């Protein structure tokens, strides 16, 4: 049987498939440092995915097509971005050039979950070190997304839009989206809605319960553009209903979020421009451990009511003069969080998990970009000031020694200094130069920082509220944490050799004061954790670490219509004091696809491979994973320009596999035992229709 599969795989690599743009042609002219594969482009500076053309329900899944990137999956909509070995709060994720304040302490509403795929125009990952102007804290990378709101029109008002629907048989997942845009040359009104729903996912090892989804996303906006002035005003709403997160201790009951934003840009003169952005969002979030999964005994049932709110702003001036571009700016983030745990069967039970938590960041930066002959030089510096605080906590409804010890933990936390602050300086330098008409080299060096998250600081009671680590361990915070500081070097090249093109990059990162869970030295917390879970917790602490690797995209034009392409990614990370590998790093992986693009239709076959991962963290009790191969097929047809018909088969051979960065199952009542890594979806047939007018 294995021989037959291998022969079939070989045959499919000689067949065609597509994740192609409707109007893309494989042989289109492109920049010499850029690889264009219909529907995506990968250059030495960035990688771009046209998300709305992908058959996805989780926008974060688009990261799988970007070298060096992947997604830590704790549930069907809870995808946490990972890039070159770093993930979570170390990755800055922008939505329409603004951040988002999450509502839950376990990243159930990770930033990319706010971008429903059919209304997401693009996802862009900065390859290498993020410029200081892109985000205040982007120590591990920068991801930006943009909502598809339609285009400006001609002199007269015109109506345009889209309506589309998709269905996947595995989990009965359905997605429906619509956009209506009324626009002239200078004005644009747009309204968008997307509705996603589905049941539990099937794997070759059985059903994963709970993995149902329920999400509605809305957006209305007004835009103005007269060539020298731009304005965008928008308001949005996310309504996530009962949605499973089996790698976390609870599931989503609801997440209700309101989002508001404004962007302004105008030319002061021929060489001076001002840009400003402001955003605000407010999140109400409830989760529990008994509604969607097998309920524990009544005394262990938990309901967590959380909230998050905050604002972000950006203001910068750009001055172009004598071949140089200077940008000076300030930005900031102000976030507030609360979390209270109760038991619906015991009115006396209450844990004030996070109370009146505040985190404020204010930053200032300057960045110079200058053309130097056949190259371009960039130098930027940023100073950030981060301050945090938290209110007093407590617990009630727990009897005996357990209640006494938890009360002592709360008293110690309340007596400690919780008003904390950090100051840090980031510096980034980049140089790109062409050695020929078809080859561009790049060198980047930078020092970037990140202050601790509120979970890492203020998790006073041993719990799994860890920002989505999903290792099954309980953690306790530390008020003595230092800010992380990363020093990184990146070297890359983009080149064309005849019909062959590639964009490989090598990187090395040394991180001082890397924040990681280590065996707790808090004897009281150890005692409480042992009584609650049977094992001692990990405590967030500063260690030293290093991460290195390489990633690349490549393509080869077999003919004007036929393209062979692929990506490869390798990331290695370890603590330098103990040589223990860092937790949740993806193993060596890559993909090879063959795309045939005709005038009105396209086909693609794709083979994805992952190596064994035996470099695992002993501290996190991390499980090894075996390697695997998956085969995907797809088809796209445009009978007329306005209509797109699409179909896809994922995991054609129904392989049983475990992606290493997928979380550990915490939900009883599933076919996957508690404590075992979640299995990947079995064979999945998807189809969709998108109509534009």
Task: Estimate percent helicity.
Answer: under 10%
Task: Note the gap between the termini.
Answer: 48 Å
- Tell me, rounded to a whole number, the average pLDDT: 94
- Pick out the low-confidence regions: 1-29
What's the CATH H-level superfamily name?
A: TonB-dependent receptor, beta-barrel domain
Number of helices: 4
CATH architectural grouping = Beta Barrel
Assign an overall shape.
globular
Strand content: over 45%
> Structural class of the secondary elements?
mainly beta
Total count of strands: 37
Largest sheet: 26 strands, mixed
Multimeric organization: single chain
Named CATH topology: Maltoporin, Chain A
**Total domains, how many?**
1
CA-atom Rg in angstroms: 25 Å
CATH class: Mainly Beta
Structure in words:
This protein is mainly beta and 693 residues long. The chain has one domain: TonB-dependent receptor, beta-barrel domain (Maltoporin, Chain A), CATH 2.40.170.20. The protein is 6% helix and 54% strand. It contains four helices and 37 strands. It has a 26-stranded mixed beta sheet that branches. The longest helix has 16 residues, at 400-415. It is globular. The protein starts with a helix and ends with a strand. The relative contact order is 0.14.
Give a nutshell description of this structure.
The chain is mainly beta and about 700 residues long. The chain has a single domain (about 1-165, about 190-285, about 295-690), classed as Maltoporin, Chain A. The strands form four sheets. It has a 26-stranded mixed sheet that branches. It has a six-stranded mixed sheet with strand order 2-3-4-9-10-8, with no helix packed on it. A three-stranded antiparallel sheet has the order 5-6-7, with no helix packed on it.
């Amino acid at each position: 049987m294995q021989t037959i599969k291998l022969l079939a795989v070989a045959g499919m690599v000689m067949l065609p498939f597509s994740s192609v743009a409707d109007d893309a042609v494989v042989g289109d002219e492109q920049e010499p440092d850029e690889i264009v594969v219909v529907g995506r482009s990968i250059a030495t500076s960035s990688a771009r995915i046209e998300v709305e053309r992908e058959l996805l329900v989780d926008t974060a899944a688009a990261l799988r097509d970007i070298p060096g990137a992947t997604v830590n999956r704790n549930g069907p909509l809870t995808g946490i971005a990972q890039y070159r070995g770093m993930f979570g709060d170390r990755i800055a994720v922008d939505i329409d050039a603004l951040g988002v304040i999450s509502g839950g302490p376990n990243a159930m509403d990770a930033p990319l979950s706010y971008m429903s795929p059919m209304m997401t125009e693009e996802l862009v990952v900065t390859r290498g070190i993020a410029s200081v102007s892109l985000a205040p804290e982007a120590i591990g990378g920068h991801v930006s997304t943009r909502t598809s709101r339609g285009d400006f029109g001609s002199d007269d008002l015109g109506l345009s839009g889209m309506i589309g629907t998709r269905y996947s048989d595995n989990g009965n997942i359905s997605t429906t989206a619509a956009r209506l845009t009324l626009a002239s040359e200078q004005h644009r009104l747009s309204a968008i809605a997307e509705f996603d729903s589905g049941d539990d996912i099937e794997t070759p090892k059985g059903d994963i319960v709970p993995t149902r989804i329920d999400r509605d996303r809305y957006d209305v906006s007004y835009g103005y553009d007269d060539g020298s002035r731009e304005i965008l005003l928008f308001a949005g709403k996310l309504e996530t209903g009962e949605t499973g997160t089996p790698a976390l201790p609870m599931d989503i009951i609801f997440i209700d979020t309101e989002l508001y934003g404004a962007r302004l840009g105008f030319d002061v003169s021929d060489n001076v421009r001002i840009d400003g952005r402001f955003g605000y969002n407010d999140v109400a979030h409830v989760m529990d451990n008994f509604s969607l999964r097998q309920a524990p005994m009544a005394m262990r049932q938990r309901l967590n009511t959380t909230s998050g709110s905050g604002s972000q702003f950006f203001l910068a001036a750009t001055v172009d003069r004598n071949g140089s571009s200077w940008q000076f700016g300030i930005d900031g983030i102000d976030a507030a969080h609360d979390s209270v745990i109760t038991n619906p069967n015991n009115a006396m039970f209450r844990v004030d998990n996070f109370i009146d938590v505040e985190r404020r960041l204010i930053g200032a930066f300057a960045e110079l970009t200058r053309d130097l002959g056949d190259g371009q030089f960039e130098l930027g510096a940023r100073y950030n000031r981060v301050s945090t605080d938290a209110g007093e906590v407590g617990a009630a409804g727990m009897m005996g020694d357990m209640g006494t010890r938890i009360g002592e933990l709360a008293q110690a936390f309340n007596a400690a200094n919780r008003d904390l602050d950090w100051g840090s300086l980031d510096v980034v330098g980049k140089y790109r130069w062409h050695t020929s008409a078809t080859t561009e080299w790049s060198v980047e060096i930078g020092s970037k920082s990140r202050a601790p998250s509120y979970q890492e600081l203020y998790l006073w009671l041993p719990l799994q509220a860890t920002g989505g680590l999903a290792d099954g361990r309980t953690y306790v915070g530390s008020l003595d944490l230092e800010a992380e500081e990363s020093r990184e070097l990146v070297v890359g090249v983009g080149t064309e050799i005849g019909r062959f093109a590639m964009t490989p990059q090598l990187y090395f990162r040394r991180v001082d004061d890397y924040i990681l869970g280590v065996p707790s030295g808090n004897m009281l917390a150890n005692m409480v954790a042992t009584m609650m879970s049977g094992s001692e917790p990990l405590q967030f602490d500063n260690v030293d670490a290093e991460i290195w690797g390489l990633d690349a995209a490549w393509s080869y034009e077999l003919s004007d219509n036929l393209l062979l392409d692929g990506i490869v990614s390798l990331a290695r990370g370890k603590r330098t004091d103990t040589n223990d590998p860092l937790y949740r790093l993806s193993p060596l992986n890559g993909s090879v696809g063959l795309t045939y693009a005709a005038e009105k239709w396209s086909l693609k076959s794709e083979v994805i491979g992952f190596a064994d991962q035996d470099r695992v963290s002993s501290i996190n009790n991390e499980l090894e994973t075996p390697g695997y191969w998956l085969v995907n097929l797809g088809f796209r047809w445009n009978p007329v320009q306005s209509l797109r018909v699409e179909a896809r088969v994922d995991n054609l051979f129904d392989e049983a596999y475990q992606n290493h960065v997928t979380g550990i199952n915490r939900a009883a009542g599933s076919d996957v035992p508690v404590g075992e890594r979640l299995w990947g979806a079995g064979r999945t047939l998807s189809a969709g229709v998108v109509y534009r007018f």
